[in-house]
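Listing S7. Sequence submitted for prediction.
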Amino acid sequence: MKIVTLRFGELEIPEEKIINFPKGLLGFEQFHKYVVLQRKDSEPFRWLQSLDDPNLAFVIVNPVFFFPNYKIELHIKELADIGVTEDSDVETFVIVTIPKDIAQMSANLQGPLLINTDRGLGKQVVFVNGPYTISHNVLDELNKRVEKKQQRLALEVQI
């Protein structure tokens, strides 16, 4: 399938790479077909490009990359909706917002995207009663991890 996108120009998308979000994404329920684009120049980030609207693309990332303790508990129904029978069948991503001030870059940990890449099905789940919000600062998290690492190194040197 050929598509023309605003950000990436003309792309040839193999049918098996198309991901159908039957209920769409929150705020974008009318758009159902997407593809995950991976570019070396934007690692670890990826793009969730809409096939229904060439102007619509989301920056996404595996949340564990920036938030190593990120854990979600899913009801079996959530996974059954996208044909997942084993944990290895699902990839989890979160949408990242990158404003002009990159120091304010944030990840929506409250509404992760679950994708069954084998079946080409996805859904967004929203956790209303949990520790996560729609805006977790990515750089703050990285700075915390660097500080912890520096503290551990300082302890090792002092011992």
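Caption to Listing S7: primary sequence and predicted structure tokens for the chain studied. The chain has a mean pLDDT of 89. Residues 123 and 131 are 20 Å apart (CA to CA).
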